[in-house]
What we know:
There is one protein chain. The chain is mainly α. Helices cover 73% and strands 0% of the residues. The protein has 15 helices and no strands. α3 packs antiparallel against α4, α8 (189-210) packs across α10 (232-239) and α14 runs antiparallel to α15. The radius of gyration is 21 Å and the shape is globular.
Amino acid sequence: MRAASTHLNIDKDEADRRALLGMPKATAASSSTALWKIRLQLCKPITWIPLTAAVMCGAAASGNYHWIYNPFNPADRDIMLGLQDAARGLLTMVLAGPFMEGYSQTINDWYDRDIDAINEPYRPIPSGAISELQVMQQIYFLITGSLCIGLGIDVWAGHNFPAVLLCAFIGTLAGYIYSAPPLRLKQNGWSGDVAIGLCYVTLPWWCGHAAFGELDRMEYWVLPLVYSLSGIGPAIANDFKSIEGDKQFGIDSIPVMYGVDVAKWICAVAQVFPQLAVAAYLYFVGETAYAFAIAGLVLPQLYYIKMLLLVDPVANDIAFQTSCQPFFFLGLVAT
């Protein structure tokens, strides 16, 4: 009996941990009622990872990010300058992850509350675990915080033009028109999934780059845009679990429009081809090592496409996304 009780406690603790991170299908088993935990669930910390990674990719691409101690470059070992850049980079990651992505996830859950009542009725809003007033307070706090942090980074970087503030404003606007009527970009699978790719890769990349340098070369604009199109793949994979609710509320996701069998192939092609396009560009401009690195990182994604996505995209949606994500973002680093 004692062993069984311990096993149940472990299961409950694991469920609460997964729910706190905002992992899909986790909150069904969670019994947490603490308001701070519910607020954190709405911000879905698990989704912050790709944005914070993209921020640091942009910072590195600027050429002006300094290490605290660079073992490969004796000229880049100014500890104080490295600490300052690390602090600015961390603040930019906080802007992109907890604030901007937290805001986008919260407002999306608010406008999806009727759909979630069907697909995921245990989520904080449809379950009644958090009130409308508390949700609105969280949304306005995160919007205000995003804009203030963005302006603060611009001041810190000595910008004449508030580029990071502009990125923060575009991000908050994109989060709103993605979820809220009348535009509600997610109402159509193509516009919604393209918007997800742009917000998960391009905007945080630009934000990280602008925090340390100027976006003064065409490839700084184009490569993140092209690579972000690969984000359409995970976005489609995420829609497989919501087909019934999406049909009922008139949301034309890719799986709803084309059916599961066609949508899984669209998902596979959308995820792989933009990465290969970036690899091809790098090869033709003479960056062969990076080109082969990105192409090599596509190979394990192809394996998971074959073994998980094409076998059963509905049952394997989470496993597919979590398996591919590390290789996707390592490719972004190489870019």
